[in-house]
Amino acid sequence: MSPRRISAPLAIALLLLGLAACALPALAMATSHRPAAHKTAVRHTTIHQTIRRHATRRGVAGPQPLRAVNAAAPGTPSSLAMPTGDIPGWHQVLADDFSGSVLDASKWRLYWGQPGGDPGGWFDPAHVSVSGGQMVLAGYRDPADGGKWATAGVSSSPGLVQTYGKYLVRFRFDSGVGIAHAILLWPGDNSWPPEIDFSEDNGANRQTTYATLHYGANNTQVQRKVAVDLTKWHTLGVEWTPGRLVYTLDGKPWSTVTSSHVPSVPMTLDIQTQAWACGTSTWEQCPNATTPAHVNLYVDWVVAYSPA
Questions:
Q1: Which CATH number applies to 34-307: 2.40.37.10, 2.60.120.200, 3.30.70.580, 3.90.770.10?
Q2: Rounded mean pLDDT of 97-116?
Q3: Pair 62, 32: CB distance under 8 Å
Q4: Tally of CB atoms within 10 A around 4
């Protein structure tokens, strides 16, 4: 029997339907990467309750196939064991000592993409690795990313999103001008602000860390700083309770913020590093001739608690 001919209008309609069907999976994949953000600092001041514009954006992706990370050897983990179980006033809800060989996808999601307001930065999921009892966020110029400085980040969403809690992160950070870090609490629904950074720097050196509460439509800030050598192992943390933040260093409080602006919304725990483009910020430094080829952040363990 001879094949049936299809009229021209019908053929065109079928072609359009086929193209739409091919596009749907790509659309679903794109919309599954929920946009999120972390700030770009356009200026810095130690005066409390000043304004710094928010501009950085990143995405959080699900588990991704990882290529081999061209990172420097991670060295040995710290000598301080990860706390286990509940402690007075707190119930442990997250504990990860990175004892396996891959990131636990039930606890962490990976950053991806271009930070808004920072053409020098790029988050690459393949720059996260787990080995030797550590999670490594590797920063280096990556040929797979066009030769630009690529770094990494992880978020506890959707594994841990809660209102109030105690958080501890034990880490050290390679020296390297222009590669900064931030360990922070971020709104679970991405409705920034608020934001609580309990360890961050500007990529200048590793001898100071800052803690910053962001709130309000104009990104008002309450900022503190403490001297600490971040190239050595330290445990940075925060106790977040109604109207109060207690920042901790190696188990001891170093600053307290009491304010009605302390967030009371569900938040995630995020850990990230980032390269900065020259000329985009008066506070954040950019890589220069002294910056090593590899600038990595090593995380020995992370624990989090909810109020008991």
A1: 2.60.120.200
A2: 94
A3: yes
A4: 5
Mean pLDDT of 135-147: 97
Sign of the dihedral defined by the CA atoms of residues 155, 158, 163, 168, in that order: negative
Helix, strand, or coil (residue 111): strand
Q: What ranges do the domains of the chain cover?
A: 34-307
- With tokens 């797979």, the residue in question is 144
User: What is the average pLDDT across 125-152?
Assistant: 97
Q: What share of the chain is helix, strand, coil (3-state, %, to 5)?
A: 10, 40, 50
Read off the pLDDT of residues 174-193 as tens digits, 9 standing for 90 and up.
Answer: 999 999 999 999 999 999 99
Give the global pTM.
Answer: 0.80
Residue 168 β-bridge partners: 237, 303
As a three-state string, the secondary structure of 246-308 is: EEEECCEEEEEEECCCCCCCCEEEEEEEEECCCCCCCCCCCCCCCCCCCEEEEEEEEEEEEEC
